[in-house]
Amino acid sequence: MQPTFLGLEGLALTPDETALFRAADPAGYILFKRNIDTPDQVRALTASLTDLAGRALPILIDQEGGRVARLRPPHWPEYPAGDVFAQLYDKAPVTAMEAARLNALSLAALLRDLGITVDCLPLLDVRDPGGHDIIGDRAYGADPMQVAALGRMTLDGLAQGGVCGVVKHIPGHGRAAADSHLELPVVTASRAELERDFRPFRTLNWAPMAMTAHVTYTALDPDRCATLSPIVIDLIRTDIGFQNLLMSDDIGMKALGAPSAGGYPAGSNALADFGARALACLDAGCDIALHCSGDFAEMRSVCEAVPEIGAAARARLDAAMASIASGDATPAAQWADARDRLLALA
């Protein structure tokens, strides 16, 4: 097994993808809008990935609600963005927390029915007035403990529905004044100021999976962004205390392709060599390198470069998947129950 989560090109596996994935055995996969048409098609796709792997498989998706949702009408309902729960929390904290749990339970039931086992949610990024809108209304608010409370209930709801949650973007993306999809954000806040960003992640450091931020924090490591920084990864493991599965954000994002991101092997072309990007993530201390584009040449480069998954990373992966094995209620019943209780709260 290789320490990668990979995307794929379209609605079904191609022969080239099948051959590559059979040989490389990625740890898991991630789905995007280009991979989604109808419920039956998604079920067939996830079944083909699981059959190819021959094991319980992390199949990821970004299904947050609001503007970040790969599953949309007419086949699937719209879900609210994090800010909806933040606004409700201002009026009725306990109600907001229960609404977040029920929302996540409903999401989980929908995903599990499609064979999707991991949702890249919740965001624990603390909203900041100077931050770029790439976080914006996706956040659960500007107060760290509020963010942690709503994030906790989201993790609980997902787990109750048999889906693994992913806290992101550790150690915190809220202050970033740039979109890491397009460029490398640089945060110049002091170490003391960054404590505000760390708090939700420290509070929920038991989460089964986390995703790094492609952000440079000059107070922590001025030369390398968090994903590529052994210094920041060590802080995540020790100071924040997160000991479970740590994946990179998408290595195809332009932030990670910037030479100023640092952390690449000498002589590599960081802008083009996706194998070097994946290795740099792993060398910094990430358990898994995430590659999302589905571009076959890029995936082949990654698969040719990375080693077998290490024992510690494999144990963390197995533990994360075991944490959701108890989701045993039928998806239809879970979805209907969560929907009815959400409507009652509304």
UniProtKB/TrEMBL annotation:
It catalyses: Hydrolysis of terminal non-reducing N-acetyl-D-hexosamine residues in N-acetyl-beta-D-hexosaminides. GO terms for molecular function: beta-N-acetylhexosaminidase activity. Its EC number is 3.2.1.52. Residues 27-325 form the Glycoside hydrolase family 3 N-terminal domain. Pfam families: Glyco_hydro_3. GO terms for biological process: carbohydrate metabolic process; peptidoglycan turnover. It is an enzyme of class 3 (hydrolase). The keyword Hydrolase applies. Keywords: Glycosidase, Hydrolase. The keyword rRNA processing does not apply. Belongs to the glycosyl hydrolase 3 family. PANTHER family: BETA-HEXOSAMINIDASE (PTHR30480:SF13), BETA-HEXOSAMINIDASE-RELATED (PTHR30480). This is beta-N-acetylhexosaminidase.
